[in-house]
Design brief:
By secondary structure, this protein is mainly beta. Helix content is 9%, strand content 64%. The chain has two helices and twelve strands, in the order H-E-E-E-E-E-E-E-E-H-E-E-E-E. The longest helix is centred in the first third of the chain and has 19 residues.
């Protein structure tokens, strides 16, 4: 019995010595990672390496007032309420001055004319991808970004009064100079962040029927009449801006803000505008990319 106990003790000491003999680094700080380690249960455990990528994602809901005019459907302006969902993702690296912006937006609205005897239902999806150069001031408290982004918009507008040409399709692609500024500060032992961003379409193209042209003529009879229109800031003077304030509540970071989305176009002897002013509320999460080394 004593021999068995001595053999068991010797085996435990040998296992402990083998574990201590494995090469070890200082972890992510010195760039060295273990390929694996052994525990007393002989279970293989993978190691992790944290790199320089930082992803900040905000999921927001916006609600507010909308003003719509589309002279292809009606000369009247329609006013109502809009509901919008926004996924706003910022991808940065600690070792680079460049960052990427990825935004998904989906919105629906219902509006009435002045007399209240007709309505318009609108819906749209917008995807934006931007690249920006970064400057940091005041020890990183102030971050300024400047660059450009591409915006793709697909949507529709339906007029409940019209029997002839009741709907209008929307499709556009724009290249927009854009900029953002973020100020981070600490007050009453809490961290806060104030951010403003702006984009202005410069050049692009959009789909539009011509004045007096029906969709039947375009798609059934194939009568093309300048329906793919190159655009500039002069023909589509538009602006999208967003001001947000981030603060922590417990372990959750919340976002409150305002969005002003003012889209206009004057093409093919037709006028269009959609003016949206919305209150935003959302949740902000930040991620650090971690690689698992088998």
């Amino acid at each position: 019995m004593k021999i068995i106990k001595l053999l068991t003790l010797a085996a435990m000491l040998a296992s402990s010595a083998a574990t201590c003999a494995l090469p070890c680094g200082n972890g992510p700080e010195d760039g060295t990672a273990l390929h694996g380690s052994l525990n007393t249960g002989n279970v293989y455990a993978p190691d992790t390496i944290r790199n320089n990528k930082i992803i900040t994602n905000a999921q927001m809901i916006g609600i507010g007032a909308v003003n719509i005019l589309d002279t292809y459907l009606s000369p009247e302006k329609y006013r109502g309420t809009e509901l919008r969902y926004i996924s706003h993702t910022l991808r940065e690296r600690r070792d680079s001055r460049w960052s990427r912006l990825i935004v998904h937006q989906g919105n629906m609205s219902y509006s009435d004319n002045r007399s209240g005897n007709g309505g318009e239902i609108a819906g749209a999806y917008t995807f934006s991808y931007g690249v920006h150069y970064n400057w940091n001031f005041f020890d990183g408290s102030l971050n300024v970004k400047a660059g450009a982004q591409a915006d793709v918009n697909v949507g529709f507008l339906y007029n409940t009064r019209n029997s002839n040409n009741p709907a209008q399709a929307r499709l556009s692609l724009n290249i927009s100079p854009s900029a953002a500024a973020t100020y981070r500060f600490r007050l009453w032992q809490h961290n806060y962040s104030l951010r403003y961003e702006l984009s202005v379409p410069l050049i692009g193209m959009m789909f539009s029927p011509n004045y007096g042209q029906s969709y039947y003529e375009i798609f059934s009879r194939g009568n093309y009449d300048h329906n793919i229109v190159p655009t500039t800031f002069g023909s589509t003077p538009s602006l999208r801006q967003m001001l947000t304030f981030d603060f922590s509540l417990g372990r959750t970071t919340l976002r409150l803000g305002y969005m002003g989305d003012f889209q206009q176009a004057r093409v093919n002897n037709l006028k269009y505008h959609s003016y949206s002013n919305m209150l935003l509320i959302g949740i902000v999460r930040q991620f650090n990319i971690t690689k698992i080394v088998p």
